[in-house]
Specification:
The chain contains 3 helices and 3 strands. The chain is α+β, with helices and mostly antiparallel strands. The protein has one domain (2-74): K homology (KH) domain (GMP Synthetase, Chain A, domain 3). Strand 1 and strand 2 (29-35) form a beta hairpin. It starts with a helix and ends with a strand.
Length: 75
Amino acid sequence: MEELVQFIAEALVEEPQAVRVYRKETRRTTILKLRVAPDDTGRVIGRNGRVANAMRTLLDVSTRHSDRDVILEID
């Protein structure tokens, strides 16, 4: 999951070396925190959050058969 978020984010931003994905596990939830350079935050979120929502949809589809929920947070 982290690799998918990292790959997508690096393709979108101007500073791919600044992309970081952190993972936190709870009992039933995985929280992925995406950090990018301040100037790239808008590119990752997209107009009206469309890019961020698309990434969340891909994560949801990729974990559909597991019993874990995935939350994507963007900093």
